[in-house]
Each structure stands twice: as C-alpha cells, then as structure tokens.
Design goal:
By secondary structure, this protein is an alpha/beta fold. The chain has seven helices and 13 strands. The protein has a nine-stranded mixed β-sheet. The chain has a two-stranded antiparallel sheet with strand order 9-12.
Length: 306
C-alpha cells in the first residue's frame, strides 16, 4: 500500500458528515494548513449528511467537484461520508493514499450509541476497514453557549493527537486493529486534559409525531437534538384529505446517560475523550452463554414438533 509519506510532509485527508462548507471542517483545514506540518486533502460531502451512519452509494455513480480551499486540494462529493473516504483513499481521485484520514470536526458530540448513527465516525471507520489509520473528531456544540470560533479551538486542541498518531505511523508502531474517536468538550478553552475512555451506552431516545407540512415540527440537528419553533408545539391539524400520505417527524423523548467514566460522562466533566473503536459488534459474553444453551433447545423443540 503506497502512502504519502515519501515526501517531507505526511498527507492527511479530511472528510465529515456536515458537508464541505461546514464550519467544523473549514476550521480544521485552516489549522492543519497553517501549522505547515501536513499536506492536506479534502474529500467531503457536497451537502449535509448527518446521521447517515455507514451508508454507501452502491447502484449509482457519484461525482466529485473541485472546491477552492486555501492550502488544500479539495473535492465536494455527491455521496455519503463513507463514500468520500472510500473514494479519497482509492487512488482514483488523489494520486496516493493518505497517511491519515481525519473525519470532522462534527457539530455535536458522538458518544455512546450515537456512534452507530454517526456519519462522522463512519468516515473514519471506512478508512479503518481499508487499512488506513483514521480518527473522528467531534465538538460538543451547545446552542447558546458555543460559537463558530470554538471549532478553531477544538482543532487546535486536536493537533497534539493528530501529530502523535502520525509520528507513530512514521515509526510503523501505530496499532492497526482500531481507530480513534475523539470528542472535545463545550468549554474547550478550559478542558481538563485528554482522557482515554470506552464507548458508553448513552443514547437520546427518539419518537415520532404526525405533522401536516414540512414547516411544522422541528429540525433535527447534527447534534441529534431538536431545534423547535412555535408551530412545533401547537396541536396537529387534520391531514389534507386530498393527500393520502401521512407525514411524521422525529422528536426527542428522553435520554439514557451512563454515570461512569466512559466517553459521555468524561466529556461532560470537561475532558477531551479519546476512545479506541473497532468495527465488530460482539455481544456480551453472558449473552453468548445464554444462546449457546438456547439454540440446541430451539432446534430440538422444533424437530420434535414435526
């Protein structure tokens, strides 16, 4: 596998799920370029693709349009984050494989079960599946407290991790059996340091409500929270009799948050969380023991009933 370390600078490729014009990606690229430590490539969706998970384009072609981003070679792609990573590391778009894929910076944290939904994490996971080191970066955006300048601070806080990964890659000592998911706290200026964590079981519980038009209800944010307007709290009107389609929109119903030192809890305490992830989804061993006993009984009872 030919990587870009043949020159003086390592090559990093940036993708995301908020789209190529998102402030998180633009801030990250500016910080990477201005550090003069990297050759920067960008291969990101041409529009927002939040919460698409690891969806890929299978039957249709995708397009890549050159985009002007100072100091970087950039393309806006008509695909998902996983598509962008796959294309960017394929040598079909760029002449060499990047040394590191960086997905982010996402507008909103990606902890717990939200990692499954995240297009940002999928952008990093796709690189990992193809043997390319990767890291996903997310900033814990909170409406009313955060502003776009925080993305620059989050990028600067991520730089030590990015540089350390590349140093290990150059020495060929970086582990190949995982990738990293990094979450940066809301008050990034006063963060408490970097903490190694594990994935929690935290999740925002979702429900569905009927709506009568696209204007009613709220807009689901990249942060998997709901931005509502005054119309979303009114009673739902009767559906238009001329249109047989029923319209529904997600709403937040509640949440379950772990209270230990996993990713979500540590992030809320003000730490920059660093969580190694893989691609397998094994069940807990006690479940495996249960099904080991259960499966022969199922087969036996079904056979005896014939």
């Amino acid at each position: 596998m030919s990587h870009g370390y043949g020159g003086d600078l390592p090559t990093v490729m940036v993708t995301n799920d908020d789209g190529i014009d998102a402030p998180g990606l633009r801030a990250l690229v500016r910080v990477l370029v201005s550090s003069n430590r990297f050759r920067v490539l960008v291969c990101a969706p041409d529009s927002e693709k939040s919460a698409v998970s690891h969806c890929i384009t299978w039957r249709n072609d995708i397009s890549a349009k050159p985009v002007e981003i100072s100091g970087a070679i950039a393309f806006a792609v008509s695909g998902t984050p996983a598509d962008c990573t796959s294309l960017g590391i394929s040598k079909a778009l760029f002449p060499s494989i990047p040394d590191l894929v960086i997905s982010g910076i996402n507008m909103g944290s990606n902890c717990g079960y939200h990692i499954i939904y995240s297009g940002t994490v999928a952008g990093a996971r796709e690189a990992f599946l193809n043997g390319v080191p990767s890291v996903s970066l997310s900033y814990d955006w909170v409406g009313g407290r955060s502003n776009v300048n925080d993305f620059t601070l989050a990028a600067e806080a991520s730089l030590p991790i990015i540089c350390a990964i590349l140093a290990e890659i150059k020495k060929r000592t970086y582990p190949q059996n995982c990738f990293l998911n990094v979450d940066i706290p809301t008050d990034v200026v006063n963060h408490k340091g970097y903490r190694l964590t594990s994935q929690s079981k935290s999740i925002v519980k979702m429900g569905w409500v009927p709506v009568t038009s696209d204007a009613q209800g709220g807009k689901m944010q990249s942060t998997m929270t709901m931005e509502t307007d005054s119309s979303s709290n009114s009673e739902t009107e009767s559906l238009n009799a001329k249109d047989e389609r029923l319209q529904f929109r997600r709403e937040v119903r509640g949440s379950h948050m772990d209270d230990d030192d996993t990713d979500y809890c540590s992030l809320q305490k003000g730490y920059i969380t660093v969580t190694p992830l893989g691609a397998l989804s094994p069940a807990a061993m006690d479940n495996h023991a249960y099904y080991k006993q259960w499966l022969p009984e199922v087969v036996g009872s079904f056979t005896s009933a014939l």
